[in-house]
Amino acid sequence: xxxxxxxxxxxxxxxxxxxxxxxxxxxxxxxxxxxxxxxxxxxxxxxxxxxxxxxxxxxxxxxxxxxxxxxxxxxxxxxxxxxxxxxxxxxxxxxxxxxxxxxxxxxxxxxxxxxxxxxxxxxxxxxxxxxxxxxxxxxxxxxxxxxxxxxxxxxxxxxxxxxxxxxxxxxxxxxxxxxxxxxxxxxxxxxxxxxxxxxxxxxxxxxxxxxxxxxxxxxxxxxxxxxxxxxxxxxxxxxxxxxxxxxxxxxxxxxxxxxxxxxxxxxxxxxxxxxxxxxxxxxxxxxxxxxxxxxxxxxxxxxxxxxxxxxxxxxxxxxxxxxxxxxxxxxxxxxxxxxxxxx
Length: 343
Hints:
single chain; alpha/beta; D-Maltodextrin-Binding Protein, domain 2; disordered N terminus
């Protein structure tokens, strides 16, 4: 009789343990499903708080203005404010490094500039970031076409004439830019390497000062963005020699490209784009790319960017990343050959 009772107790305990195990497994499964559902919900709900867009330059320039325009439009589409945070210093290196080390959660983004990301690593002994490893591209915002202009008093008008004239100058034909290591400087050095032109670089602390000097006849040439020169070209105060884009600029359709002048594969624009810290979740990057492209396909936004001299360039994150890698390599070769160093 006692044996029977013990047997019943063992059977009862076994059933209790089995029931508990099943219940526990069910709870774990339910929890996993809930967690998966919550994770999917969290991704779908991104962003759930304001996003910081770091602009590594002072307020007021073309790069900053384009960033503020994109931030304004993304805020409307994402339903959360995209706040511009200017972190200037060291030619953009300080703000760029800040994003490189930020939490990769999609809430700290970088307004990336070609000068900072693909030129600075070659001209500065230390920048504090690795362009290829520390960032995840979201998408390119657009290209600012570069142009070589001359004072009307310079006898040479075509590119061939400018090159020929430069070779008669013992000290070289001077060209001004916004500063050492900027994209216009790299373009000028590449032009020298490709054509044998005898050009001497004159760096200024900003494109405005260089423009003032060429307008005054103090220097013969300036390499700059179309936006900074177009009004002077149209008024006849400056002569447009050539543009660095693959096709002619729509705002200056009569000005030939360097490629048309026989300088093959001479497609150099100054670009600006949107990036996040490396390891940012792909769903977040994909959503940001989708919304950025929607903004860039808006005719009103394209027009506002055009006024800034920027041609909107919607596209995939992969394409933008490939372009960055290409420029990182080719500009590095130019910097090394010309022995360009940060001042």
